């Protein structure tokens, strides 16, 4: 099955700095890569996703890049704000199905004012 | 508002007891999922269901059971056979197995005393 590795496990930045979280995956057939944000005591929420037919996708201050050759994808948050502090998870398909997502271990992002 | 409702939010149980976690969605989604979340391990898939009266084991199904008698409901029973049941449990749903965003509930925290 798919194996998704996420780094770093914790990330601390100053408000206004950029934050980058990277994930690697093992299944070369994987073609869908979502990112989720989980605030304390809540369920994860989708913040951005990318499919394998594009290399980059942006939505305001967040972007995701995908390198299929190297089998890694990254989340970029620019101009970080304290409300960006949360746990972020990447995910990849568990096989060829979108439905069985395999999640990374999570990154605790702390943005200091 | 449409969404996923999990209950109870917090639950304590003694060793040897079965406990059932409720998950209800009013999004008219076909696919539903149960994930377990432990610190530093991301989200691991317990069971999933693509359609009413059908469900499949995920990666860590041992010690758990589910039913899917109604489209909107997917309860999870944590049995006494689950050796380490203390965890945060997340229910999710999706329009179809390979379609749409995965929506999560707010989670249920189970503690075994």
User: How much strand of chain B?
Assistant: over 45%
Major pleated sheet of chain B? 7 strands, mixed
Number of helices of chain B: 0
Order of SSEs of chain B: EEEEEEEEEEE
Query: What is the β-strand count of chain B?
Result: 11
Give the N-to-C terminal Cα separation of chain B: 36 Å
Classification by helices and strands of chain A: mainly beta
Radius of gyration of chain B: 13 Å
Model description:
The complex is a heterodimer of chains A (113) and B (113). Chain A is mainly β and 113 residues long. Chain A is built from no helices and eleven strands. Chain A has strands at 4-7, 10-14, 19-25, 32-38, 45-51, 56-59, 62-67, 72-77, 86-93, 101-103, 107-112. In chain A, the strands form two sheets. In chain A, strands 2, 4, 5, 9, 10 and 11 form a six-stranded mixed β-sheet that branches. In chain A, strands 1-3-8-7-6 form a five-stranded antiparallel β-sheet, with no helix packed on it. Chain B has 113 residues and is mostly beta strands. Chain B has no helices and eleven strands. In chain B, the strands form two sheets. In chain B, strands 2, 4, 5, 6, 9, 10 and 11 form a seven-stranded mixed β-sheet that branches. A four-stranded antiparallel β-sheet of chain B has the order 1-3-8-7, with no helix packed on it. The termini of chain B are far apart. The model of chain B has no long low-confidence stretch (mean pLDDT 92). Chain A binds chain B through residues 1, 4, 6, 9, 34, 36, 41-46, 49, 89, 94, 97-106, and chain B through 4, 31, 33, 35, 40-45, 48, 50, 58-59, 90, 92, 94, 96-99, 101-102, 104-107.
């Amino acid at each position: 099955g798919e194996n998704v590795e996420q780094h770093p496990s914790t990330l601390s930045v100053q408000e206004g700095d950029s934050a980058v979280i990277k994930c690697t995956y093992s299944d070369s057939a994987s073609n869908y890569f979502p990112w989720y944000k989980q605030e304390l005591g809540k369920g994860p929420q989708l913040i951005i996703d990318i499919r394998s037919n594009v290399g980059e996708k942006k939505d305001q201050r967040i972007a995701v890049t995908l390198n299929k050759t190297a089998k890694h994808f990254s989340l970029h948050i620019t101009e970080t704000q304290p409300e960006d502090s949360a746990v972020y998870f990447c995910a990849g398909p568990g096989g060829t199905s979108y439905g069985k997502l395999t999640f990374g271990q999570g990154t605790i992002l702390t943005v200091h004012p | 508002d449409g969404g996923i409702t999990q209950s109870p939010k917090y639950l304590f149980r003694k060793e040897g007891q079965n406990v059932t976690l409720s998950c209800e969605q009013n999004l008219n989604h076909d696919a539903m999922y149960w994930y377990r979340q432990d610190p530093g391990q991301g989200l691991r898939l317990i069971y999933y269901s693509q359609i009413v009266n059908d469900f499949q084991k995920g990666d860590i199904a041992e010690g758990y059971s589910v039913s899917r008698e109604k489209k909107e409901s997917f309860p999870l029973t944590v049995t006494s056979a689950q050796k380490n049941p203390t965890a945060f449990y997340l229910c999710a749903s999706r329009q179809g197995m390979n379609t749409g965003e995965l929506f999560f509930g707010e989670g249920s925290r189970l503690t075994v005393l």
